[in-house]
Hints:
Layout: H1 2-24, H2 38-55, H3 67-81, H4 85-91, H5 126-145, H6 147-151, H7 153-166
Subcellular location: Nucleus, Nucleolus
Organism: Clavispora lusitaniae (Candida lusitaniae)
Function: Involved in ribosome biogenesis. Required for normal pre-rRNA processing in internal transcribed spacer 1 (ITS1). May be involved in the movements of the replication forks.
Amino acid sequence: MSAKRSTISSKIAEFKKEQEQSDDYHENPLLKLSKTTKKEKQQAKSSQFNEKILSKLTFNLSGGISKSALRRRKRKEKEQLKPKLGDLWSSLPESTVNIVQKNNEREPSYVQHTTKAANLPNPQKQTGHAKLLKTENEHFNKVLQNQEFKCTPFSALKQAISQNMKK
């Protein structure tokens, strides 16, 4: 009976070894059972999320200095880097330059103020284009009814066009 027990115990031991080996290797690795449980995965995820949130600087951890104070400091540092006018003035040579006015230059005279032209219609917009067409038609009708046009049409047209160009 002891021989039977030893063979049974040896068979059980062999079976356990086979089971351990089969846990390491599986024919289809996609069907391999995961060794971590669902709860462990959830806990790992939540702990990673908490660490991620704590790592971000959403709180005022900058030694009690506000954002505006930091901005003021940066602005001051930038201004200190800029060259100052006094430094530039002292670095210039001390030689003087004499400016001599020529006699033939004219003194500035009074320039009379000219009034701006009235707001003319914009020919590139539809309403302005329509207004310009209307005024040009009226002007052309006046030229056609003029006595000069009846005598010499080409010279009257030339004169009207030149007057229109002056405007």
